[in-house]
Amino acid sequence: MMVSLDIIILALLVASASAIPGVFLLLRKSAMLSDAISHSILLGIVLLFFWLKDIHSPFFIFAAALTGVLTVYLIEVIIQSKQVKKDAAIGLVFPCFFALAIILINLFARNVHLDQDAVLLGEIAFAPFERLEVFGRDLGPKASWVMGMVLLLNTSFVGFFYKELKITTFDKNLALILGITPGLIHYLLVTLVSITAVVAFDSVGAVLLVAFMITPAATATLLSRRLLNVLFISIGVACVSAITGYSVAALLDTSIAGAMATMCGLFFLLAFFLSPTQGLITRARHQKQKKLEFSAKLLTIQLLHHENQSEEKSENNINNLLDHMQWTEAFSNKVCKYCLENQWITQKKTALFLTQLGREIAKVVMKKT
Amino acid sequence: MLQLDYTFFLVLVGTLFMGLSSGILSCYAVLRQQSLFGDAIAHATLPGICLAFIITKEKASWVLLTGALIWGALAMYLIQSLIDYSRLKADAAIGVVLSVFFGFGVLLLTLIQKMPLASQSGLENYLFGYTAGLLIEDIYLMAGISIVILVVVLSLWKEFKLLTFDSTYAATLGAPIKRLTQGLLALLTLSIIAGLQSVGIILMTAMLIAPGTAARQWTHKFSVMMILSITFAMLSACIGVTLSSMIDHLPTGPCIVVVVSCLAGLSLLLGTKKGIFLTYIRQQWQRRNISKESILQQLFILANTHNDPRYPHEFDSFRLFGKRPTQQALKKLRQEGLVYKSPPNRWGLSSKGHQKALTLLKKQNTS
C-alpha cells in the first residue's frame, strides 16, 4: 500500500512538472522539440553513466540536460543555414543522437541498469525502491524528492518570468521592442524541458514524456483561451490522467507510464469532441441551430414577399416549401415548428400566415442584407 | 570478422529494399514539409502490431504488419482531422498522436508480455528492429512493398511532382489534390511498414528525412534528387549491415541510422548546390566583388570633380562615402591594374580602371 502511494505521488509530480513547460512549448509551435529533447538526452545520460555511475547527483542531471540544450542549438543552427525546414531539422538531429546512444548501450552496457527497453518505456514501479534516508530516517523515494525539486524549479521559473514568457510566446516583435530577449527566454525554457526530461526519464522513458508535456497542454488549449487557465487546466488534466492511469495499470497489471499516456489521450479525445467552445459535437450542434434559424428567417421573407398577392394561396403553403426551397419534409416541418414556437407565423391547415412579429423579422433581415 | 553467409545476404537484401522505399518517400516528405508525419505514423504502428498479435495469436510478420498498417493509417487520418477540425497546429497534432498511440502500444506490449501464451513473442524487436530474425518471407514482403511503391510513384510521377511543388496549379489543372495527398501519405505508411523490421519504430523517422535532405544539397532537379536519395538510403543500409556484421553486438538499425545521418550532415556541409561550405565561399566572393566595384565607383566620382579621370586622392577621401575600404582590397585592385598608388597614400584610377568604372555605372543606371 505504501509503495503504491509512493508511485502515485511520483506520477503526480512527473505529470505536473512536465505539463508546465509543455504549455509554452505547444503555444510556441515547438511541440516536437520535446520529442527531440527527450530522445537526445539519452546520449548524455549514457555517456555520463559510463563516467559517473550516480544518476541522481545534481551534476549528472545538469550535464545530461545540457545534451538537450545542445540538440536544440544544433537544430537552430541547421534551420538558420536555410538549407532545411524546421521539421526536417528536428527529425535529422534527434534520431542520430538516439541511435548513437542505443549503439553505446548495446556495445558497452549490455548487463547494466540501462537496458534499451527500460530506456524507452521507463519503469515508474521500481522508483520507490531507492529511498532517501537522512539520519536513518526514511523520507520516501529519492526520485520523488528530485522530481519535486524540478516541479518547484519549473513553477518558480514560470511564476518569475510569467510576463516575459507570455510576451515572447505571443508577440516576439513586441518582446524585442521592450528589450526582452526572446532567445534567452527560449533557451531557459528549453533548459527546463531538458532538466525535466532527464529527471523524468527513469520513471516514464523517452517517448511517454512527450505525452505528458504535449497532450495535457493540447487538451487545455481546446478548453480555454486564457494562458493562466490553460496552465491550470493542463496541470489538472495531467494529474487526473496520472491517477486514472495508475488505476488502469494496477487493474490490468501493465506499464504504468503507458496507461497514463493512454489516459492523457482519452481526455484529449473527450475535449476534442465535447469542449464547450470548440468541441466537434458542440460545433456541429451550433451549426445545426444556425441553419435552422437561417431557414426560419428565409421562410418569413418568402411569406412576406407573397403576402396579399394573387399567388399567395399556392406560394405560402407548407407543400410549396418542398418544391421551392427544396427542403425535405422533415426539415420543413422543423422550420415551421420553430417559427410557430417563436410566434413568427400561424398555420391554418397547410396555409401559412405571418404574424406581426414575423413581418418585422423578415423586414429586419432584408434590410441587413 | 565479416561473414558472407546466407543470413548476411538476407539482411542485406531486406535492408536494401527498405532503403529503396524510404529513399523514394523521403524526397516527398522533405519537400512537402511532412517529415515528422512519418515519425508519428511509425510510433502509431506499435498498438497495431500488439493488437494484431492479441487477436490472432500469430507472430508471422505479415499479420503483425497488417495491424501496423491499419493503425498507421488511423494515426494519419487522426492527425489530419486534428489539424482540420481543431485549433491545434501540425506539430502539436503530431506530438499528441505520436505519444498517445505509442503509450497505448506500450500498455498493450506489457499486457502481452504478461500473457501466458506469449512465449517470447518478440514484439519488442520491432522497437529497434531485429535483423537477425529476418526470414525469407519477410524479404518477399519488403520487396513487394518496395515494388508497389516504385510502380505507383513512377506511374504518377508527374502528378506527385506537381502536387509537391505547386499544389494550387495542380488543382487548377483538375488534378484530384485530396486523393493524391492521401495516396502519398498511404505510400509513406507503406514505406514505414517496410522498414519496421530492420530499422524499427523509434528510428524509422531518420530514414524518411536524412536521405532526402542529403540529396537535396547536391541538385536542384527533382529526378536527380530522387535517384541520389535512393542511392544514399541504400548505401547507408549496405554500410550499416556490413559494420554490424563485423562488430559483435552492434545493432543494425541504429547503425544504419547513424550512417545515413552522417551522410546528411556531410551533404549539408559540402553539398554543391546548397551546402553550407560552398554557400559561405560564394558569399565571401560576392562580398569582395561588391567592395571592389564600389571602390572603383567611388574613385570615379572623386576624380570627376577634378576633370581628370586619373586624379589621385588621399586615402582618407573615401571617408566621404562612409566606411573606408581596406588596404588589402586596394592592393588587390592595384595588382589587377585597375588603380595606381602615388606615394605616400594617394589612390587614383588607371585608364583600365576608368573604363571598368564607367561600364559599372552605366550598368547601374540602366537597371
Would you mind describing this structure in some detail?
Chain A is mostly helical and 369 residues long. Chain A contains 16 helices and 4 strands. The radius of gyration of chain A is 30 Å and the shape is elongated. Chain B has 367 residues and is an all-alpha fold. In chain B, 72% of the residues lie in helices and 3% in strands. A 3-stranded antiparallel sheet of chain B has the order 1-3-2. In chain B, a hairpin with a 3-residue loop joins strand 2 and strand 3. The longest helix of chain B has 29 residues. The termini of chain B are far apart. The model of chain B has no long low-confidence stretch (mean pLDDT 86). Classes of the chains: A mainly alpha (369), B mainly alpha (367). At the A-B interface, helix 2, helix 4, helix 5, helix 9 and helix 11 of A face helix 2, helix 4, helix 10 and helix 12 of B.
Protein topology:
The complex is a heterodimer of chains A (369) and B (367).
Chain A: H1 2-27, H2 31-52, H3 58-80, H4 86-108, H5 116-121, E1 131-134, E2 137-141, H6 142-160, H7 162-170, H8 172-177, H9 182-223, H10 227-252, H11 256-274, H12 280-306, H13 312-315, H14 318-325, H15 329-341, E3 345-348, E4 351-354, H16 356-368
Chain B: H1 6-31, H2 35-56, H3 61-85, H4 90-113, H5 125-128, H6 136-155, H7 157-165, H8 167-172, H9 177-195, H10 204-216, H11 222-246, H12 252-270, H13 276-304, E1 313-314, H14 327-335, E2 339-342, E3 346-349, H15 351-366
Antiparallel strand pairs in B: 1-3, 2-3
Helix pairs in contact in B: 1-6, 1-9, 1-10, 1-11, 2-3, 2-4, 2-9, 2-10, 3-4, 3-9, 6-9, 10-11, 10-12, 11-12, 13-15
